[in-house]
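hey so u asked for the seq, here:
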Amino acid sequence: MMKAAVVTAPGSQPIYMDFRRPEPREGEHIVEVSASALSQLARGRAAGRHYSSSNSYPQVVGVDGAGRLNDGRRVYFFGATAPFGAMAEFAPVAQTQCIALPAAISDVTAAAIANPGMSSWAALTERAHLVRGETVLINGATGESGQLAVQIARLLGAEKIIATGRNPEKLERLRAGGVDTTITLASDESEMKEAFSAALRSGIDVVLDYLWGPSAHALLLAAASASPVERALRFVQIGSMGGLELSLPAAVLRSKPISLMGSGIGSVPFTHLLKAIEGVLHAAADGHLHITADAVPLADLAQHWDDQAGKGRKVFVPNPR
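ran it, structure tokens below
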């Protein structure tokens, strides 16, 4: 047996409890887990809300993490063979889904940065095919993934970065950190559309959208009604923190050169997602990317599962040393 965070039904809270220890199978590693981050993907899968959820219970929660193999090698891993997950003392993982960790990155940092960093790295390289010197607008830049997206867009060659969000203090910090323009998301959609129209007049090549909902709707309407421009807009949908659905007039996609696409599990080949994660890990090890991580014992999971506050991204440690 081992200790693990287990969810027994859709929508129920994970419980720290005993769970059977995985046995090694051909083509798998048994990873001794040292760190696993709490993400929206982990929450969504555990609750059965995410489109990639297995909806099979009981299951160990957690989608990725860092740990050690039997021979002592440090690895990052994504996915574990059901019903196992990353938030446990041990996880069975396909050998092809393990990435060697650079020596300069800690297990906690690797677990914290891989998933949110991959979201924008894959979107920019696999979907938008960012060209050095282009302008990128990040819709929802004040969250953890959005803040990393700012760093990654600059690292991958964006000349100008526009950041949106509701938190004025975080927007100001992003501006101080090198963002060229910020847009405060208002409650009134017409105000948002006006602000987006002003930004579009200067030219935007790529949108990374972490919100969907009203802000994405206003942005797409603004793009459709903007003055004729030569630059096509590649709109990449990544997250839905602002809403799951929106109603979009068909003319939006006919009246202007707008490419609307998604980026995530399914729209990007899994091997390419792992390649994006590898890029993020090496960039972080080289000091080009930064994230704040809040390491807490896995045994204290109940206190933190729904907690959005704290010193940074929550990372659960099965056996704190």
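The domain at 116-262 is CATH 3.40.50.720 (Rossmann fold). The mean pLDDT is 93.
lmk if thats what u needed
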